[in-house]
Records
---
Amino acid sequence: MWRSATVRTSLGFVVLAIACVFVADFEISAHAPWAELGRLFLGLVQPDFEAVDYLGEAIVRTLAFAFVGVGLGAAAGLLLALVFRHLVVRTSCAFVRAIHELFWALIFLQFFGLHPLTGVLAIAIPYAGIFAKVYAEILDESDPSPSKVIPHGTGLVSALAYTRFSQAWPHLVTYTAYRLECGLRSSAVLGFVGMPTLGFYLESSFAQGQYATVGALLLLFYALIATLRLWARPRLLPFYLLAAPFLLGDGLPIRWQNVSRFFTEDIVPEPLRQGEGLAGLVPWLGDLLANEALPGIWNTLVLTQIALVATGLLTLALYPLVSHHFTGRHFTGRVRGALGHGVLVVMRSTPEYLLAFILLQLWGPSMLPAVVALAIHNGGIIGHLIGRRSNEVSLRPDAPRGIERYAFELTPRLYGPFLAFLFYRWEIIMRETAILGILGIATLGFYVDSAIQEIRFDRAMVLIVITALLNIGVDILARRLRNRLRLRHTAQSEP
Amino acid sequence: MTSLALTDVVANYGGARVLGPLNLTLAHGERVALVGRSGAGKSTLLSIMQQHWQASGAALMPQELGLVPSLSVFHNVYMGGLARRPSWYNLASLVRPFRRDIDAITPLLERLGIADKCWAAAGELSGGQSQRVAAARAIYQQGDLLLADEPVSALDGPLAELVMAALTEAYPTAVLAMHDVELALRFTDRVVGIADGAIALDEPSRRLSVQDLLVLY
């Protein structure tokens, strides 16, 4: 067992994570952390749905931003997917999707202000990069033989629509629906930087200590995502997409002089702006790297590695909850399975950022809330996928039960897909880790946010680009590892 | 339409010569059966013909049929006519087919015995049904020339004859690769036998009997 490359790679990750734990900051600094948690649970059990206007507005705005952002992103992604083989397109898509929605929002906030366009573009741009990549992969997987029998002289649009798109349609729809769910989470989180979505209402309810309203907001959000399949019907989608742009709210008007100032002054590095030229640029960059970028990168990497391994351990502990090999197939088993599903749905529907925000309120600022939030959200996603995969395994009738079944029959068979999913999430976990800095944990996002607070956008832009490059680097590393360990990976298996 | 001629065509596969050099001229209104053992080069010759004659209005019915499994039978047949319509019309048909196209395609499906499957997805059909859909598409294409690779291999007896009759009626000029020698003689004017990548026999069908062709196998 110790000779298998998969096991050795996994152990390497665990050892690295343990080493990281020693240099990480895990202190609980709040005065009464458990009392706060208790009040929050009380709020969830006794939610206050009285403020109907308030809750309704939070939900409608969250939906509207998600629909417009994902809709625009999907349309742009579809067009980009057709030209995705060009290196320029591939590289720019990798770059825009390496920058988190919240970073995009922070950038657009500087020149569009609190206009709805900020929130819409913050979702649409990174989503377009993701859609382009996955749509291109799905289209490539379609059977090329129908294209051969297309009559000579058929227009390009007709030929594509009848061959490639028709074949790929079901997969495109499934993936887009999944992304809509992600878009709802992104939209909710945009509230934390000032968009009028769920996060905004959640933050202000927290600030006022109204835990019953917090509970009501969270429960509504879970209900929205759990019932997505019931209300997001294909026939209703055109209606939603048409209505959504009118429900974004008014925000504040755009001041166009801000837009031009942003590009011509704000983001130009300070020494260049003051005419010091290259001589001034080198010390400026050196200072930025030594005092902000490097500490930020270090903390981001430390936190990412711990969160990755915590996610993996939680996944391995949780997948039996939704595997019929453990819950059983009879009536009581199905009830147990449904309960397990419920737990995982709640875990994966909670955006990491929102969870980290809540835990941070309860435990005070340290890396602990971030690790727990990342592990819960990502463990919920991968646990669900691995559990589903385990249900495709058929065991011999006299297979062992209980812990032996877990250790000898199922986990070894599922370990390959498990690692594939985990490596895929690696980049996502790192992107989220960086962004959690906005909450006060000293990852890259913290330095980006501080630079913006100090109105030093030139520094913020350099840090955002560094974050994007770090994400691209981890993505490449994960792909190499997947190839080396021969883990199968297709577009549809992406969680 | 200019005359259909292949001169000194060759095909290589993995560095080895698998076909040719060979010459073949096809007269208008001439239906040619390509016969020969499997692996002799019939499919290769057909694909060369397709490359040369595609622009002269060749309709193709390959062995793998080229159906889109997620589209309905109607749409798969309609695809034969894509070049005759503007793009906006084709896109609109994808969402909601026009009455006149349904009226044009239904009799064709009725003749081939698959009218009841008109709105079923092509991926849900049996092998024989799929082959008839591909035949219907080739017929609906209304090209000047048909290139078909084993067009009735999944059909038996009367159905095979029905489809052959429909295909040959729609296409006076055709090249059909076939392994059913008896059907080949009945529905074509000329038989070209392929062996080891070269033309081993080229005779009018009426002068041949089934026994004459067995030497090729």
---
Amino acid sequence: MNRLTLFGAGIILILALVAIFAPFVAPYDPGAIDVEDALLRPQASHLFGTDLLGRDIFSRMVYASRIALSIGIIAVGIATLLGIMLGSIAGYFGGKIDSVIMRFTDIMLCFPSFFLMLSVVAIVGPSIFNIMIIIGLTSWMGVARLLRAEVLSLKTREFVLASRALGAGDFYIIVRHLIPNGIGPVLVSFVFGIAGAILTEAGLSFLGLGVQPPHPSWGNILMEGKAVMGVGWWVIVFPGIAILVTVLAFNLLGEGVRDALNPRLRRR
Amino acid sequence: MGFFLLSAVFFLNTAFSDEDRPDFGGMFVTAGIGDARTLVPILASDSASGEIVGMIFNGLVKYDKDIKLTGDLASSWEIQNDGLTIIFHLRKNVKWHDGLPFTAEDVKFTYEKLIDPNVPTPYSGDFKKIKSLEIIDSHTVKVTYIEPFSPGLSSWGMAVMPKHLLAGENLLLTKFSRHPIGTGPYNFKRWKTGQRIDLVSNHEYFEHRPYIDRYIYKIIPDISTMFLELQTKTIDSMGLSPLQYKRLTDTPHFKKNYNKYKYPSFGYTYMAYNHENELFKDIRVRQAINYAVDKQEIIDGVLLGYGKICTGPFIPESWAYNENVRPFPFDTNKAKRLLKEAGWSDTDGNGYIDKKGKDFAFTILTNQGNDLRIKTAEIIQRRLKGVGIKVEIRVLEWAVFLNEFVNKKRFEAIILGWGLSRDPDCYDIWHSSKTKPGEFNFIGYSNPDCDKLLEEGRRTFDIEKRKEIYHRIQEILYEEQPYLFLYVPDALVSMSNRFKGIKPEPIGLGYNFIDWYVPKAEQRYKSK
Amino acid sequence: MLRYITKRILQLIPVLIGITIISFIVIHLAPGKPTDMASQLNPKVSQEAREQLEKIYGLDKPIYIQYISWIKKVATFDFGRSFVDGRPAIKKILERMPITVLINVLSIILIFFVAIPLGIKSAVRRGSVFDKTSTVFVFIMFAAPGFWLALLLMSFFGVKLGWVPVSGIASLDFENFSILGKILNVGHHLILPVLVASLGSLAGISRYMRQSMLNVIHQDYIRTAWAKGLGEKDILYKHALKNALLPIITIIGLSIPGLLSGSVIFETVFNIPGMGRLMVEAVFSRDYNVVMCGLVISALLTLLGNLIADVAYSYADPRIRYGR
């Protein structure tokens, strides 16, 4: 493990603690409106200043970390599960099933997925839950391809053939042999995926389709900040940095995991 | 030329110094968040199309600076038979931009298109009340209504279209929609989709040649980008958000280059209750909510003070407004008392009031894309928590909001705004016959007294009598609280101070655009 | 080669049809009709007027019938008309497409000329100060939300310093410029958008390039080359680079949908009248025909991008042509 990976992991750990203990970390109620205190600069009593309604930005960002992490993890969890299922089925059974699943994957890959997300959010409405599902449903394709490739090469290995000769069923082989042995690259893509999902939520929020008020999310705090650009730089700068640092941390961790799993690089 | 002399005399008479004599030339660049959709006047329903259409076309009547109806293409009119008939005398010597004369035929043609079932115009409603439209002579038309209909006169502010160019055309597909020809102060020049629309002044305009030669409408979909453009002087004018108006314009650079204007907008924001919901059937509950919400706090917090408390369906500048209706004060105790009277109290000690074992909880819906409404909802949410009412907020995309929730009455409370026409008739919003899906009394409000007054209001032409009627309607509505009336926001505008001749009036700013000018020395772009 | 390309093009057809079916269903499931925007909540629009609008547009029929009549028309390149302004959907898309494509092509070029040398240099000098600083920089760029960067750059370079225009693609007096002036003017306007559009992918691709280069230089044949005593330049830029570039070609091809999606954001921020903005507007106003046309065209662009990448790949690596 190199220092950058440790740095990433450390940030994620801190972030997780902040998210879990948000009520103890945040000095104010994130929804407390006080029009008198609107747009205060960063100062001792308001570390990151206040927004247009006089809410403490630091407190809002603390609570928003819960949303960022849960959207990241759950959305990518959904995508990964879907990808594992489809990828392993396609790789294992091959033939018609494989080509149907892979054609479908190709189709999904060709969508500018952001347009698709916009349309879907328009149907179901932008709640936290819906956003997790939508991001999940539109980002499983990479995992499916990865796992399929792994399964394709694994399924002709001796231990799999042996297991089959011993009478193991398809399901057993997929779940006990193929998925555990092919999971490495998927793990890497899981970590990177979280970073991507956090950015996606921010992008949706920017267009007004992300997490909705009064729930604070980094994306929607930032979007509100856009309106005060010029007088309230702090509203736009801090949540941006939070997103950047979090995404950076996940990317660094992802790189670390990949290097750890890549035997050729480990050798050196 | 004749006119030029006239205007010179006018300016001397009103003791303007020589230097203030308007110069011709210059260019006015304004911006809006959306592109125009069509420049066929009777199909144009969005604000961008409306703005451009307003520069290119004229109606028979228009509102003057004091919000009174005055002639536009009609020089005068007579109302006969107790309001059943209106006779319009049209201006003579008015020419379309292509040089052909404007006549009564054009008025008749426009009317026929408005009521044509194959033309999807949103404006047909008022014109369906017309029994017949006859041409008396080339410059006189007689309009006969089925029954007296006082809002009818103002509906003739609808832009008149040229028959000779549009007869036989499909209005949805016609080239005219992107190359309009009108009678107005500006001629259409060019439309770069998604970027800008260019107009040039009509030297033959029947009032007089506008001083400013070019009018450019830039499309900038994001209001903060628009403001940056204003600061870099690539646009001359824009509507500001309260925040921009108050805080961002407080810089030396801004003060040196721009003027700011503020006038009441013609609309109000409200929270509507679903009257079919048990929670809101009790008038005491609705009144309690009004006491529990500090309207001034919303105005201060959301509009930064740029607005007035709304006390009914009319805005203070309207003649229909009844100033004896006072807003309920912010009084949490009174609210709690009223709720208690209505049977709501916190029996289980969870912080929320309840009745028959159920907490008082409801969801406010509003549309996304409108920050002001969302913030308003957040403030209401906080305040109602103070009297033990639990409020959730749900923000929905516009189309979903309307179709799935408003029209199907699947809501408890919604925050919305009404833009008002200058005529106070609000039959469609409050009359108990207008509650079908897709109609505007979507809250299901019904009050026989109010119904009768609304019907009377649109049958009466005498303005003093109408005043009495609408004053009474406002009293009833504010007492009954079918909506929680919230605020009337101010329209906030900033304008480069190169432009002279701007005189803010109750109607707003743009009414005398043709008299605006830029002194020669300050004109920026060479006209081509 | 020709056979390979023909085969690939034929394979695209079912994919395209699949895309249209999915899009059509998603879009038509969305509550709300295009007629809403023009008419709803305008107290002067009656219910009959609204129903009349729907009938005129044929929205009262079941969805599969709408799809069949749609696909029949599309086969003749008729994508129907916009519900918003009655103009042909394809015309609306095509007039917005050049600027989006221009920005994306410029970004790809920028990515190619910055990311690849950056990646190579990092890989060759693995562990050096250059590698470390470029890695940190690249990671930060990769992690920053694009619109956030856009806003920061815009308020700094556009408003504060006044070096570049804040938004739009041309100045107001554009018509009066000479041809060269016009090109310079547009170029001046596009600096920030192109930069923002490429930063994210630039970071990603330089990482891939570094990785790919690292993989290659540890391959046996490169070691052999070293052993044979060939010069560093020859080894790195003749032998290693060609092979290391192969996966990058595919990745650039695959990143096209991402770039198109990104155009939504930067076209909104920088007020560029391109396809991304049109698509968002169309989704919000339920302008079915324009949305469908946009999805089909962008899918087509993506498929085309992938095809070009694949062909380039197979050209560079003949093994591909005979596999599968």
